[in-house]
TrEMBL record:
Signal peptide range in chain numbering: none
Cofactor: FAD
InterPro entries assigned to the protein according to its UniProt record, in alphabetical order: FAD-bd_oxidored_4_C (IPR004113), FAD-bd_PCMH (IPR016166), FAD-bd_PCMH-like_sf (IPR036318), FAD-bd_PCMH_sub1 (IPR016167), FAD-bd_PCMH_sub2 (IPR016169), FAD-linked_Oxase-like_C (IPR016164), FAD-oxidored/transferase_4 (IPR051264), Oxid_FAD_bind_N (IPR006094)
Molecular function in Gene Ontology: catalytic activity; FAD binding
Keyword Phosphoprotein on entry: no
Disordered as annotated region, ranges: 450-476
Keyword field: FAD, Flavoprotein
Source organism of the structure: Spiribacter curvatus
FAD-binding PCMH-type domain location: 34-216
Pfam families assigned to the protein according to its UniProt record, in alphabetical order: FAD-oxidase_C (PF02913), FAD_binding_4 (PF01565)
This protein's name: FAD-binding PCMH-type domain-containing protein
Length: 476
């Protein structure tokens, strides 16, 4: 009996989609770089036991398994690798919220739950789940954990890793590790959950998680600030963090070029200030207390910090705050209106952000005259999306042909500032060769040892994250 028949027998026919039109949506991929890669089938288990059964059968038949969440990743982690023999395991039916414990400030949910549904469930219980970013209506919590997603609120609440207390994981051989603990303190051995968070499904398949909750936000103040330089933005961030009583939840840096693209190509995006500035800072202060006076704190901090600052507006109401945030959240999509783009997700120490942007901009312009750097991102945690929009006189195809050398330059500069070439979107199959090129031999050896220990037959998400031991280093 073949693996597809065996899975159909164990899980039922409605859990399996074979090649054809019904499978096509599962072969899509956000950037289109790895779309259409074939798979034997798409399997849609409805519970953790069914996921375990799929892994047992995959091991018995020598077939790889590619976990798939909401398909919002940008590095091909949920697409089949080239020439791989795999089934795609969609977690969409594992979408139950198992428990909300308001007194313990925890929520336990299955991996296929949408991030926005978890936010809503927490709110219904008078609590806050703070993980948030533009794709929250599409992404699933399992994928958020598999890539250690960050988003808008990392400065205050941390990455996905920081919000997870316990996991349930199906291992490569089909065993289930039940680590769904809701403890804040447990020093009884290795913290196994951290092996699987950020591993992109290469060490085990996350099927459920217990998450931290927080008191709800009762007061918010939002401002957008025009600035003369990125140095002024970093300086202002430090001052705001101190003068606001450390109530900053989000602090987003936007260059003029990406902001202009958002205004030009997105409905309901408008100039936020009377004049144009080279840089903008979008700031959110939040508090769980009533009467915190955040708008007054923000006004006082901004009015006293004039060096390098041109103008600012504090949102008068939630609608105006939403307008400010629409500008920031529209940037990635707006780039499409200006032609092909090359996206770089890097991080550097906060103090080095201005120097990195200057050096990276000079390097890519020197290599590709007319290219339009579009830097924006989370200044509070050093994560800069250093995206490149094609020169106006160049075709999309000609520009995308320069992906590898331009990306290599950006990555090299980020690493020169003790940064990372993969800040929050992971490695997937886009960057394993950059792991081989830029990570130390010791780090690579440890990664391979972990992979071999937990998945000796390379059954879990083959071709992702860990480069082959004999792979030639090249740009990702």
């Amino acid at each position: 009996m073949g693996i597809i028949s065996a899975i159909q027998q164990r899980l039922g026919g409605d859990a399996v989609i074979t090649p054809g039109p019904a499978m096509d949506p599962y072969l899509s991929e956000r950037r289109g770089l790895f779309a259409g890669r074939p798979a034997r089938a798409v399997v849609r288990p409805a519970d953790t036991g069914a996921v375990a059964a799929v892994m047992e059968l995959a091991a018995a038949h020598g077939v790889g398994v590619v976990p798939r969440g909401g398909n919002t990743g940008l590095c091909g982690g949920a697409a089949a690798a080239d020439h791989s023999d795999v089934v795609i395991l969609s977690l969409e039916r594992l979408n139950r919220i198992r428990r909300v414990d308001a007194d313990n400030f925890t929520l336990t949910a299955e991996a296929g739950c949408l991030l926005s549904d978890l936010q809503a469930a927490a709110a219904e219980s008078g609590r806050l789940f703070p993980l948030s970013y533009a794709a929250e209506n599409d992404c699933q919590i399992g994928g958020n954990l598999a890539t250690n997603a960050g988003g808008m609120n990392v400065l205050r609440y941390g990455n996905a890793r920081d919000l997870a207390l316990g996991l349930e994981v199906v291992l490569a051989d089909g065993r289930i590790w039940d680590g769904l603990r809701s403890l804040r303190k447990d020093n009884s051995g290795y913290d196994l959950k951290d092996l699987f968070i950020g591993a992109e499904g290469t060490l085990g398949i996350i099927t459920a998680v217990t998450l931290k909750l927080f008191p709800p936000v009762r007061e918010r103040a939002t401002a957008i600030v025009g600035l003369d330089s990125a140095e002024a933005a970093v300086s202002l961030f430090g001052r705001l963090r101190a003068d606001s009583g450390d109530t900053i939840t989000s602090c987003e840096l936007m260059g003029r070029e990406p902001l202009s693209l958002a205004i030009t190509h997105t409905p309901d995006c408008h100039e936020p200030l009377a004049a144009s500035y080279p840089w903008y800072l979008l700031v959110d202060l939040t508090s769980s207390a009533t009467g915190a006076g955040l708008a007054q704190r923000l006004e006082q901090a901004l009015s006293g910090a004039m060096r390098g600052m041109g103008d600012y507006r504090i949102a008068a109401d939630p609608a105006m705050a939403a307008d400010f945030w629409r500008l920031r959240n529209s940037i990635p999509g707006a780039q499409k209106g200006a032609g092909a783009s090359i996206k770089n997700d890097v991080s550097v120490p906060v103090a080095d952000i201005p120097a990195f942007i200057d050096a990276a901009s000079s390097a890519v312009i020197d290599a590709c005259p007319g290219v339009r750097p579009c830097p924006f991102g989370h200044i509070g945690d050093g994560n800069i999306h250093f995206n490149l929009t094609r020169p106006t006189a160049m075709t999309d195809a000609a520009f995308l042909a320069q992906w590898a050398p331009l990306t290599r330059r950006v990555h090299d500069i980020a690493m020169a500032y003790a940064g990372s070439f993969a800040a929050e979107h992971g490695v997937g199959q886009l960057k394993p060769q950059e792991v081989a090129r830029l990570k130390s031999p010791v780090e690579q050896d440890l990664m391979r040892r972990l992979k071999t220990a937990l998945d000796p037959d390379d059954r879990l998400n083959p071709g992702k994250v860990v480069p082959p031991a004999d792979g030639p280093p090249s740009a990702g």
